[in-house]
Amino acid sequence: MRGVEAFKELTEEVAEWRHYLHEHPELEYALYNTATFVAEKLASFGINHIETGIAETGIVALIQGELGDGPTIGLRADMDALPIMEASNKPWSSKVPGKMHGCGHDGHTAMLLGAAKYLANTRNFKGTVALIFQPAEEDGRGGEKMVQEGIMERFGVSRVFGMHNYPGLEVGKFMICSGPIQGGLDDFDLIVKGKGGHASTPHHNIDPIVIGAQIIVGLQALVSRCVDPREAFVISVTKMHAGDAYNIIPQNAEISGTVRYIEPHLPKFAEKAILQVAQGIARGFGADVDFDYRRLEPITVNHEAETRLAVEAARGLVGAKAVDDRMKPGMGAEDFAYMLQARPGAYIFLGNGATASVHNPAYDFDDDALPYGIGYWVNLVEGALAA
To answer: What pTM does this model have?
Structure first.
């Protein structure tokens, strides 16, 4: 295991790569410039096996170790940006209006490239490393699509690992836990179907706005009164639209939201209970509802043995005190969950310091975190694929 000092000489070069990616953000699967940049860098490191066009713009590259035959482990980085107008005021701010790397995927991609350069030069491991550069993590379930296109079988991946930056956690520190580490994600849409009319005569109408407001409040009782308080469960209404004029009660009101959970039985409960609450309230006022519930991303679950490998790699880099191996699971969703359903593995968080939160217009990945991410990947490979 190597300490972080062994990787700091890469920081300046890798930061330049990150700044380029940050200046040229792309969304979902349309990562044409990003994928070209990544593939060209990988080739420049002397990596000969590079396959592009997986899940449209995803890449898998293989590095063979020099210590003999062995298994293949996968290391995954996400590459896509967000549809946000940047307000970080950094010299390398986005040059594409309305798009920015607001979740640090530029840093994730750059760190895996840095690790690729190091590992391609040293090859101090047995077996093979599969470098997985994934599109469409934010909106599009690119992780699921890469799994569906058979990357685990095609490249013989036996274990798979992921990493994400964490604003608010000091640079040089890591967090992880065995078992669930990120929540599952479902979305829903409700249309409250009332009876529109003139706003001066509400008694002649069935007001979907008033009904919708009561539904929103009623849904919170599902969290506070219908689910075991020891179970993490969130229902957030995030969109409501009704009407276009001051003097008209509209015909319909549209309500949308998200459901997050850690326990696998909760999506079935949520789908049934949200409809029951909405229908009960609406019908009590003479209205009705249309309801659409979508199960999008499963719970991200770390496997025990692979979590131990991840902890050992991080502690070898920064020491035991800088690695929290009992973090509380978060409720954010992560499509790396599909890869962890396909193969055993682990997902870890890397400190990004006192930056703005992810998905905030002022966010920026902290370049000081780069050698820690690079070093973690290298230690993980050399530990998991030791001779």
So the answer is: 0.93
